[in-house]
Amino acid sequence: MAKSTRGRVNAQGDGTSGLGMVVRFTPKARSEGVQQLEKGGFRVASSKDFRSAVAVPNDFDGADVQYFERFGIAIVRRDGERLKPMLQNAMQQKVVSAARPERSYRALGGPLTKRLDLAQATVGGVATSLDRDYLLGYRDAVNELVDRLLGKTGPEGLVARAAFDETSNTWGLQAIRAIEGDLSGVGIKVAILDTGFDETHQDFVGRSVTKKLFATRSSEGDVHGHGTHCIGTACGPLRPTSGPRYGIAHEAEIYAGKVLGDDGFGTDRSIIAGMEWALDEGCHVISMSLGAATQIGDAPSDDYEQIGQVCLDAGTLVVAAAGNESSRPQQIAPVGSPANASTILGVGAVDRSFAPASFSCGGLNPGQEVDIAAPGVDIFSSLPDDKYDRWDGTSMATPHVAGVAALIAQSDPKFRGWALWARLIQLTKPLSSSARDVGKGLLQARGSGEV
Fold it and tell me: Which residues on adjacent β-strands are paired with residue 213?
């Protein structure tokens, strides 16, 4: 049984430089919680103060606390001597529900060369001194290289590449039936919270794009490329300038929140800020191809459980990548955070033969499931500077779901929040693999009986 983190206080944090504490207030005592922080000498900056700003100042803008009103969550600078007794008292008074160290999250996909470069940049010290996320990235790269050399992507053997002709449409769009019908996502707002977006790309000229920067110490553009690739899959053009069609909701309004920095990493602070912004903008779908690894026995984050619930209640569906930490068939890792929250739709990746991708995480911890599967191997999409490339990852599977969600949301106004979630699950195509790995099945834009 998973160990609960409710009520646990560790005001010293996890030792990661620059990160603070995530404090979640009891719903009926949010105002009192903020007041207690202020009375304790903490300067509080509310997210409402930054709504009209070009960028959210994630260095706290000189404040000690960044408070997100919609979610009843605050990020507090580390100050153990002041904060720990205050939190313990607030928990006893049931003003604070829980507190935990702020975490770091990473983009969950990319090209082989980039992931090898990241790993090689850290290799040279002893293994125990390497950053865990870089080691995971290195393993991703090695797994992919082996798969490509052997012509395999999982335990079921050779990839059926001949089954898809990508002259006109990518294999992913064909597999999920996204090219059938006349739905385009028009009138639907899709937020992609990632590494940013190159809106000057030749395939997006004239599109409705709203951008905002949340990542700390980062440029405004998409230096990494991950965000532009994900947005391409979810909302790319009907007729691209070059290559096959790769985008799904080609007339949806794009909201690009840069919550991951130029290095592909972000924190709770930037991600929660981006999610609140997406709600403020009235987005119908929030797509997050990012995550932090979890272990067997870990509990899901109650913070993201609460945030996901707030989003669903507001009519917004949140989809997130399940994670790339597996090395199938030898080892399967549990679904990462925040995809492991029961109020966030967790997306696993499959290859062209519809087998779980070698890297895709599984639902090993109770109640922390892969909800749905989508194409996530050898995915062709856009990159900054009018470029294109094929990337792998549950990051690539997630925007497939976001794009289809936009089409379904367009089809009927009743498909919002939980109803949109239920419709996506209803349309899935059953697969032979375990629900642990692919959830209810393969994403489909249309039902089997629809024409």
Answer: 55, 258
